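Continuing the series of single-chain predictions for the mutant panel. This is the parent chain; the variants come on the following pages.
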Amino acid sequence: MENHEHHNHDEMDHSKMDHSKMKHKKEDHSKMNHKGGDHSGHNPGHGEHGHDHHKMMIADFRKRFWVTLVLTIPILFFSPMIQDFFGYEFLLPGNPYILFALSTIVYFYGGWPFLKGFWSEIKKGAPGMMTLISMAISVAYFYSTATVFGLRGEDFFWELSTLIAIMLLGHWIEMKSVLGASKALQLLVSMMPAEAHRVKGDIIEDIPLEDLLKDDVILVKPGEKVPADGIIVDGSSYLNESMLTGESKPVKKDENDKVIGGSVNGNSTLKVKVEHTGKDSYLNKVIKMVEEAQKTKSKMQNLSDRAAKWLTYIALAIGFGTLAVWLILGFPFVYALERMVTVMVIACPHALGLAIPLVVAISTAVSAQNGLLIRNRTAFEESRKISALLFDKTGTLTKGDFGVTRIESVSETYSSEEILRLSSALEQSSEHPIAVGIIKKVKEDNMTIPKPENFNAITGKGVEANVEGKQVKVVSPGFLRDEKITIPEDAYSDAAETVVFVLIDGKLAGYIALADEIRPESAEAIKVFKKNNIKVLMATGDNEKTAKAVSDKLGLDGYYAEVLPHQKVEIVEKLQNKGEFVAMTGDGVNDAPALAKADVGIAVGSGTDVAAETADIILVNSNPQDIANLILFGKATYNKMIQNLVWATGYNVVAIPLAAGVLYSSGFVLGPAVGAVFMSLSTIIVAINAQLLKRKIGKK
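Parent structure:
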């Protein structure tokens, strides 16, 4: 906020202000991207191509699942092992070949995403879920095929098809729950208008932005976006730069002042000499920072991939160990091979394919109902580790509007409502932020604005006019000092406020205080963070005085004022270097690089599309308390995932050694059919446990 002493209230351009702030379009948030998981390469690039690609991937998984399911039903029905288990017999002529033909389609068509993902993981040297699934289905397919063409043993075709069907279902559920594509860079570019009005003598021509050259003079009409960085050569106006710089109120710009491409002009026409275009522009530098931060953001392996990696190593070790031991003990190769295959197929539990996706789908849906849109599952899982929270001020801790905070009357004749009503007559044609704030308050209170007569600007001090037969002045504190009028003691309650005084017929009637209001929920949320040992810091483009006032009022652990976008990234890096797990919360273009760089990026839903697209999690209601809920959600979800992984893999602890034959001397070896019962039970338990998360999160 500006200093009270220098509140230059008369410098208002009394043409009406277009203070339409660029609001976050409530886009279809079901289209948000899964930025974290990297399954089978379904991690799209930026923009529409990535978005369409991701939608196609989901459609592809859905189609493969239904085809596999349709083929799995006859495979199960005609499988000798299933028939033995349920005690019926229905074998067709050439039964093994029918099973082989159906299973071949299932393996190559249904299993293709996993086989492709397997190569992708191996190339990166990071075996995960795809490796585990591919290993299990490949061992089952090739061993079963060998039994059809002469090898002694039982086939695992039913196991192969059910495993592929369940894994396709799990991936389909998961991808649907976190659908979308990162459009951050396209949205940044779209902040610039497509055309510019170039001035050539008396002629004004509309040209594409890419044809704009340095030193061209352009016309920026009221309400338009500024097409390029430049210097004003004619005119003056208030420019809304809040989405670019974080400054909460429109900034007065006169001749020779610099303007930033992408900012929104008020209601006065400007002529601007172009300084930077294309890659040299301020906005383009922000774009580059977002790009770099997204590239360098650590690729945390998500929980199910980590579990799958270890299961892969264990299955391979025990599988080959089983083969070796049975061969050393002198058993036939065919018998040793069957033991090995049983171990490796059982090692990939069906439940693991559903354990995490079900929790993800439920937590994503329930979180959305509670005002949190999860775009990056891995960051959501990691939110339980947050140790430092860096807030942008404008629109996050504060409301982002320059609004009336207090109206006080010091007169027995005029009420605070009457003071507001009379002063609004003087402010209705001004685009000054103070005037806009007063008019907004009047409209909220459904007051009728009276008409002013003999309107006059008092140089450097304010405005005056006759309203309803009374002489009304709305002036700065400087006017009161000059006129030797005593300023009321309680006029200034907060350093972040700007105060204007209202004089009626020469006497001080009252005053109106305005500020970018702190959200009522902010203080409550900060208490929760401190209770959870999380440091709360603020980084804002606003001035030192305002930043300090907000920080003191909320009891923050620290603040950074007059911060530019690249400095926000530096603050995040500095905290990370100190060992903090950093969450960044913001709503503007100036926050986008830091949101991408932070361990967890949280965008507030009322901000720009750019911030939302760069973040991992979006707060629909712009409520800081939702971040506290996020951390609690993250903990509850993570615990549920751990429980499900324990259920999903727990039976392996029993089943793998039994399948390997540790109780062979006692006459017991776990057959594939009994292993299947274990697996089914494990899957059911996992599904029920995932559903319990609804109650857990519902309680917050």
